[in-house]
């Protein structure tokens, strides 16, 4: 049997997390080898996968972009093609395009304590041919949702509908909605993006929601940062704007959490001021939960308000009784005519997207593990995963995790250590890893890792806290168990001694 290819770090996914990890390794550990395994035929992850009209970020790119590479575009809430160009530029700038293996997916990964490395089984998408890569480390940049399909509930009577039903995650390139009546089911970030974009050419677009969502306007461009860019250049403007927006995100979140009633009143007042005088704000934009119990939806330059105000779009808050031949009948008795129905019903959360993980042949059950510093999993050696914030830009946390990975590898190299795994006290009380009310989180909660109540086992949602915890060299944490190769007694082979 041929020997497997060997790399220092195997990166799963060539999306924003995987590309960020590769760039950080190139910058900080240039002597380390790495390979990126990407199931699609191109890089970009989410920004290459989703092709629905108007797709854009719902976080500002001054915080969503990498801390080491300034965002130079004038758009702060940016269209997907601009984000994708930024990611491709990062790959080219750091010169690792030839290290990405496209059209392949990680099927399984088994840690061998004997050899102190991962044996990763990889499958070609087109042929099913399998190969193995040996890696000292695995970094999962696979994200948090299943790429193959979104969440798509079955609706009563949908087989009777004679029009087109489409999910945003599988958007047909040839879908023509010009002059058509469109109903978008949902009220999350995807829905509030789709509605104003499709309304520009559709006959009419209706956003059908079961429960209202908090919606807040934000300028598509950051005028202060663009002015600073003209005066002082990209780097200065980026640093200042990034610091400003991180602080703004945190202040907004903490203000909503500490003063939910006041936050609710402010958001309602903003919505009321941007909508027609007789618009029923309390029916369609007054959620039954507090702000940040679920993520706030951003509408750049108030585009959703514009579509609702000029009549090209409308919102209906009701429940679906059944699909009909020509649309949707609601429990109130109202019928919504439609030529196209878009089921913007969310994602299927899947942390490793079906990868079989094991340690010395014993399968890893994610729900039995505890997240350490939001970066590693208890009992699993040399494995780091990317999981960003739910209350601010995803990549703020991922950037800290990638930096932590590089420094941890450097720390271990200096001391001749080859493995590290977090170990949690089995009697420690645990909580769900994500304390968030979104449907896609609640549907997957039982399959996710847990978190502790305090210390490094607590999942922080504060960039400032994580910057302190992950940036400082606290690698002598008693929760970490290190290992190093030592000469074996027989046959001159190496054995692994686990330090406790």
UniProtKB/TrEMBL annotation:
Keyword DNA-binding: no
Keyword GTP-binding part of the UniProt annotation: no
GO molecular function: flavin adenine dinucleotide binding; N,N-dimethylaniline monooxygenase activity; NADP binding
Pfam families per UniProt: FMO-like, NAD_binding_8
Keywords: FAD, Flavoprotein, Monooxygenase, NADP, Oxidoreductase
Needed cofactors: FAD
Gene3D superfamilies attached to this UniProt entry: FAD/NAD(P)-binding domain
UniProt family annotation: Belongs to the FAD-binding monooxygenase family.
Record protein name field: Putative oxidoreductase
Source species of the chain: Gordonia amarae NBRC 15530
